[in-house]
User: Fold these one by one.
Assistant:
Number 1:
Amino acid sequence: MGRAPCCDKANKAGLKRCGKSCRLRWLNYLRPNIKHGEFSEEEDRIICTLFTSIGSRWSIIAAQLPGRTDMISRTTGTPS
């Protein structure tokens, strides 16, 4: 996979991030194809439906939401 692009920038900025920290930050927050912001009504419906049927298996739920990660999906809160 190689090093995430943020590692070099973080180290130059004086942050002492390890490789794992940089990789996770890249995968969960910095990749250009990740959607940020509010979930659409369709995404909310998918999350609620899947949560009801499979529980809090966020990586499986996120796989059904293009551009969303399990970390972003998880932090939306548990659907009621």
Number 2:
Amino acid sequence: MLLVLCALLLSSLLQHSSASVSSIYDVLKAHGLPMGLLPKGVKEFRFDEGGRFEVHLDQACNAKFESELHYDLNVSGTISYGQIGALSGISAQELFLWFPVKEIRVDIPSSGIIYFDVGVVFKQFSLSLFETPPDCTAVRSEDLGGFHDGAVMIAELSSSSKSKSEVLEHQIVQE
């Protein structure tokens, strides 16, 4: 009898905690992260007790902050307080190149700075840029390789299924 009562209580608590998280934006806020890290247009999301999340957007899109961010159709990672690690599905533009964002973190919220790890460098942004979910402009499938709105260079990382190696291809666009 006591075991059944404990199971019912645990089930009730789990339902209550999952009901209090109504959106991925609530999850971000609860973990000390700004809501605007993800754009408007989240179709569905999953978040587990280990912090792993998956977000499915209506469409792949770009959002403009101090620089441009690209969001794939699916974004995933692991959320802990003040950071998102093992991130996939977000790329940041630097000059004419696109780099995958591997991690996002807010070290000291009062500093007003958020850091994006793009592999070669940590980009700093004002935390205030990410207060609200941004509008996101749809991109065509041919744009996803890095050619965005008149860019002069295409940088695309592709992997061969045979060699599993990454190749950096550069292509100059003729005007």
Number 3:
Amino acid sequence: MFDSGMPGSRLSDADKPWGYCDGSDRRFWSEIQNDLSGKAPLAAVEPLPEIPKDSMDVGNGYYDIDKRKVYGYDGKIKRNVDDNEHFWIISTCRKGWMEETGRSPTTHV
């Protein structure tokens, strides 16, 4: 029987509650398993790589909004982006500049 090591991963455990990522505890299984409570990284890579102030971090480099190109952190061109990726980047990715984002009443108590 396949067992990925996570609760509920065996077919025979299908009727048991999962016990993670269920609303009361939003940590992922790897965070629970490695006891990362309160210590989970904010990004996949820490410290965050430095990017130019007028660009956005895309995970494998930075995006120059004016040129619509992704550069590696070494400054070499990696790719051009199409409209879909452009809109995803500007709506999702970390900015190289500081910006007031305001307070969200649903996340700040």
